[in-house]
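User: Please look over both lines:
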Amino acid sequence: MKLIGDAVDKVRRDETKSRPELKGSRYLWLMNDANLSARQMATRNSLARDNLKTGRAWAMRLTRQDIYKEPNRQWAEVQFDRWCSWARRSRLEPMKQVAATLMRNRDGILAWFDSRIASGLIKGINSLVQAAEIKACGYHTLKNLVAITYLVAGKLDLRQPT
């Protein structure tokens, strides 16, 4: 989603040169509806109806976000492929680049539907383990490292019952 957000912003920046009404609207396109005030939402919706390239890129962002709401991997694959096809035909170069990147990583992205584990969680646990290892200046055995990993990343409650 970060790549898509960056692409939407690039489209907006390029289009601002010819459409000055887009100036100052960056966060309107990058934020979800739940985080916008009613006034901001009305402004964005008004701009989106003006047949802007930024409006098309924003619509693509919303559609891509909805892929994760699909009930299973098979439906997600269909929606993913449709989205990538739409992005490649969009004539918006930043969106084409995102589609190419996503297609290269298609299997990894769709693997989320099998495991429901995002890479952010794994990266967070990895940073906890690395921090624990640095504090301890290394462990003498792999068994000790595994024990500390469970202690730090497992969120164990070690308080004595009262």
In short: Residues 2-115 form one domain. The longest helix spans residues 119-135. The chain has two domains: 2-115, 119-153. The CA atoms of residues 1 and 115 lie 19 Å apart.
